[in-house]
Amino acid sequence: MTVFLIIIVVALLGVTLWQISKILELSKPADADDSQVADNKDNNTQGKIMLAFMVFFYLLMGYSFWNYSKFYLPEASASHGADYDRLMFISIGIIMVVQVFTQALLHWFSYKYRGKKGQKALFYADNDKLEFIWTIIPVVVLAGLIIYGLFSWSEIMNPEETEDTLVVEVYAYQFDWRARYAGKDGTLGKANVRFIEGVNQLGVDESDPYAADDIITNELHLPVNRSVLFKFRSQDVLHSAYFPHFRAQMNVVPGMITEFGFTPTTTTKEIRNTDYMVDKVSTINDIRSGREDLDDDERNYEFDYYLLCNKICGVSHYNMQMKIVVEEEEEFQEWLSEQQTFGELMNN
Amino acid sequence: MSAVTQAHVEDHSHDHHHEQSFIEKYIFSTDHKMIAKQYLITGLIMGFIGIAMSLLFRMQLAWPEKSFWIFEALLGKFGTDGVMDPGAYLALVTIHGTIMVFFVLTAGLSGTFSNLLIPLQIGARDMASGFLNMLSYWLFFISSVIMLSSLFVESGPASAGWTVYPPLSALPEAISGSGMGMTLWLISMAIFIASSLLGSLNYIVTVLNLRTEGMSMTRLPLTIWAFFVTAIIGTVSFPVLLSAALLLIMDRSFGTSFFLSDIYIQGEVLSHQGGSPVLYEHLFWFLGHPEVYIVLLPALGITSEVIATNARKPIFGYRAMVASILAIAFLSTIVWGHHMFVSGMNPFLGSVFTFTTLLIAIPSAVKAFNYITTLWKGNLQMNPGMLFSIGLVSTFITGGLTGIILGDSTLDINVHDTYFVVAHFHLVMGISALYGLFAGVYHWFPKMFGKMMNKNLGYIHFWITAVGAYGVFFPMHFIGMAGLPRRYYTNTAFPYFDDLADVNVLITLFAFLTAFAQLFFIYNFVHSIFYGKKAPKNPWRANTLEWTAPVEHIHGNWYGELPKVYRWAYDYSKMNKDETDYVIPGQDFIPQNVPLHDNEEELNH
How many angstroms away from the CA of A5 is the closest CA of chain B? Predict the structure, then answer.
């Protein structure tokens, strides 16, 4: 008997549940299915993941700064570089403060105010004072950065040209660089692509009396602590002369001569012996020693300054580089005197 | 005038209920909702191709000159023995940039949502000109086909970078991609510009003339403000790109010298004399920079709407948001020179452009702060669209901040054209705009297809993407500051960069992770179109007019009369005068077509 009663009760319960579910189903409008709209549980989970994501993001930023800051270029080897680096560090500092602060607010609010049943949002449409504050703060900070930046910019772009300034032409073509020094007369001979013929690779005008003593080289040698003015010329397409260690860059444009000037302050020998470079080179040589595709010479890397092309210029763009040597004035003069002049080149 | 048009359209919608043929309905449709879907699907397909290309060149960057069968399979003779050819690398980089910027983020984002939302949110039957709208899509389609066909040209597709600076892009002698491939690139872009202009003019006219009764400009949802202003910037700047493209075509094919001068190449002096590549740079960036905002503003507009709806709060500082959009639009047209600080232009111009560029940070900051304040004390509904919107604010801040470094002419000297720039613009316009696109798709999918997307797949999609995107682009800043140039086929020519190789591997792995996450989206998107849960009329309980329209798509959007508008779009969680309950008891939103109640305070909208 009890078994029979239990069976009836269970059956009735079943029928009741079935009816309830049917009523629930019917009580919804026919086409409404909001199962794909975030419910209370989703809001809770997603809000928490938002907080976890914030932790991930801060860890990623921390990890990157901790491990990758060392990639920042060594102390600048040109006189304007200290100013450049200072402005860079101030800017990065400000940026990171704002970044840490705003990302924290954004993710924290996303977590804290995640939807809950019965929670009421605040109807808060406007606040002139608040908006004024966060308009004026960026205005002031940016004004400071702009002023600092503009002073540095006008100093860098208008270097003082004295009698002592060394004028060097940097010449670009697919896919290499040449340097041309003015020689004893201190003036570069005229040049145009229309004069290019045979060994006269740079199109120097032979009839120009200033041209004969010009010196054309495959390496860029610079005397330390002497201001250098570069005049850039391209034979074919756009290139960009990028001297990362000197915080200098200028596009090389066919049809016009562009300029950039700086004063190198650290010789190649000096920078090789800095802690930064000793560390860096030993890391690189550790990596290279494990590589079987390199021969012994290549495994033993020694740092040299370089000039590289930084404007897409063709298929070998990635390997358009020139070695730069910064040395004492005497060494520079000695090296220069060993080079063939343009006149000699043409007469040979 | 507009009233007359409106009346006519209404008549029209009452009189005809003719059956449309398949071609009229799905192919040469003049219905803005169908055109929006066409834009979206074309844009997504182009996006798939663009992202796949980035994976290929990321593989080359992580494992330079290694052999992969996939290179041989996909690149053919440009991947002989599975090793990527340097020319193919540049081609991939170029076409990836072109496709993502123009075909995905301009047409796919703005094209889709301007078309879908402008008529629906302002209460119009359709665009001002359905025919021009159809033409705009089909021109976009043709230009996409031409762009993709250039991949199969024997001499290779355009490979001078997406900016296609001459002389490299003008001279097939300089790089083989500048032959037939470049010609097709230019033709494709010229058609694309025509398409974009037809679209933009239509959007502008529609917003100005076809707003329903009561929809004043200050009651427009921020989405519409963003699309409207975007269309204006597009109309102002795209023609300049067209002129640049035309002059380049003339230099290439008709021997003119607008951009070329003093060139000696392959043993010959060219006859071109007197032109300047710098002129091209000015023309290109006169579009190129506004283009960033053409991409970004619609994403920000979508975000404003999605955040307000899901936070159940009005967007904070509506007027400030509109003012910011206008300020950004105006400033965006006078900052192009910051791409050219080291181009050889006069350094004084550099100072001017630094000034205007840093000015643009101010409205951007205002927008970011307003989003954060909108979240404050909200009741956040964590739908996938909302997650992507929050993600957008995050990447917009991270990427925008480094703009302060790049916009400063001094600091730009040493990070110009390095990976620092790549990291910056991918975060601030690439990832942010993509998040905007995804937010829009998740949010308006019910409106487009009458179905719901699966939320759990949406969550997986978002979180993997969010982790992956930062994993790719945050470390990238650091290799940029090490002086690593972009667009290098391999970095092995410089032993100095050897210690950066590990970071490049890490970035590539994150790139694969991010791309993998998109498969969830594709599956969810396609599956939901056919098998998704049927959508309710107003699933997100939103205020804007599109949710008052029937779920099924009808010609003319609304049965009977057009809805009238009595309030702005952001009356979420508004309390009655006695502060006892919401204005409509038990309902935390008041759609725009609900008249003012006696017990509510009137706002200035």
Answer: 42
